[in-house]
Amino acid sequence: MRRSQRLVLITKHLTENPNKIIPLKFFAEKFNAAKSSISEDLNIIKSSFSDAREGILETIPGAAGGVRYKVKSSEEKIKAFLQELCDLISDKNRLIPGDYIYLTDIIFSPEYSLRIGEVIAERFIDEEPTCVLTVETKGIPLALMTARALNVPLVVARRDIKVTEGPSVNISYISGSSGRIQNMALPKRALSEKARVLIVDDFMKGGGTARGMTELVREFNAETVGIAVFIATEEPKEKLVKNYTTLLVLEKVETMKGLIKIRPGIF
């Protein structure tokens, strides 16, 4: 196999397995090439990623080492993507009676959910989360793509207990937007003690659901290392959780005027 062919296939494998340590031996055996040749290939790929600012290729030393691809975009590219989302969401045709916004097509789009998940993963990868937690249902696509970019499992809390998932830990929490008491459950097998949990959700108003998930994590003697949401409302300014990251900030919605005012939030 020519080097040009190897470069394409190695790059494909790396980007399809983000944040996973892959030994040089794996590539050497897969492509029937010397480790020295594979090392040269990886240096070319690493340089290309760096020049294009499209990712990071790390070298892990030691017997159990290898290389690891991490999702990484330039600040300018992330800003442009978030502005693209703002422009898309600002369309007055998305307004639904009751000052709601139709977002399902964006959240469940493989293209957008993948890119949103990568942005979130990039912000929290240094916290070294061991799993991603969300609550059913609209947060699942975004959380799944975040988990993929981090190469960690996805854990989904449910509103109702499912018999097929075995014994569960259940909590009650107060919704930050409505003030009503709601329930959340997570199977005992879903989360291990000392897990480092990244919470991901699609929307935050008062922060009650996010706080509920942090309390659920605490019941497992695990640690919440971050909270990320796709959209958070500007009001109320005081949420029930303090430290969170939001990709977009919803400033105002007025159905009668056909107005949706939204802006990027993480910069």
How does this model look, in words?
- There is one protein chain.
- This protein has helices at residues 3-16, 24-30, 35-52, 75-89, 104-107, 110-124, 140-150, 208-219; strands at 56-60, 66-70, 95-96, 100-101, 131-135, 154-157, 168-174, 181-187, 196-204, 223-233, 245-254, 259-264.
- It is globular.
- The protein has 267 residues and is of the alpha/beta class.
Which secondary structure elements does this structure contain, and how are they paired or packed?
Elements: H1 3-16, H2 24-30, H3 35-52, E1 56-60, E2 66-70, H4 75-89, E3 95-96, E4 100-101, H5 104-107, H6 110-124, E5 131-135, H7 140-150, E6 154-157, E7 168-174, E8 181-187, E9 196-204, H8 208-219, E10 223-233, E11 245-254, E12 259-264
Parallel strand pairs: 5-6, 5-9, 9-10, 10-11
Antiparallel strand pairs: 1-2, 3-4, 7-8, 11-12
Helix pairs in contact: 1-3, 2-3, 6-7
Quick structural summary:
This protein is of the alpha/beta class and 267 residues long. The protein has helices at 3-16, 24-30, 35-52, 75-89, 104-107, 110-124, 140-150, 208-219, and strands spanning 56-60, 66-70, 95-96, 100-101, 131-135, 154-157, 168-174, 181-187, 196-204, 223-233, 245-254, 259-264. It has 8 helices and 12 strands.
Main beta sheet: strand number and arrangement? Answer: 6 strands, mixed
CATH class of the largest domain: Alpha Beta
Number of strands: 12
Mean pLDDT: 94
- Sheet with the most strands: spatial strand order: 6-5-9-10-11-12
Share of β-strand residues = 25-35%
Number of domains: 2
Determine Rg (CA atoms, Å): 21 Å
CATH topology name of the largest domain: Rossmann fold
